[in-house]
Amino acid sequence: MKRRVALTMRRSASDACIIFRLPEATERRISSYLQDGQVAASLREWFESRESAQRVLSSLSKRGEDVKPGPLRLGTTAALSANDGIALVAATYRSAFQAGIKCYPYFSDR
Q: What is the model's pTM?
């Protein structure tokens, strides 16, 4: 059975839809990386509160982004792999936090 990493959005407790899926090789690397106990501990620490999550997102992002509620296409999957792909995602989430909205950034070639 293959593991798949996907960002999901829940409409109700029993209803979830997949916003996007990453290329399989990328999903495998992420899954392997997250198996490291130190990584999991760091993630728990970084995101234990709203304030610490905002600090982490601010440190990863280079600028603020215009956001709106719901799914938001940030570019192609090549943009995700670019040097600033993670910074763009972090900036989008940070801006959504600050605006008090739920935004779901994704990358797609379609």
A: 0.64
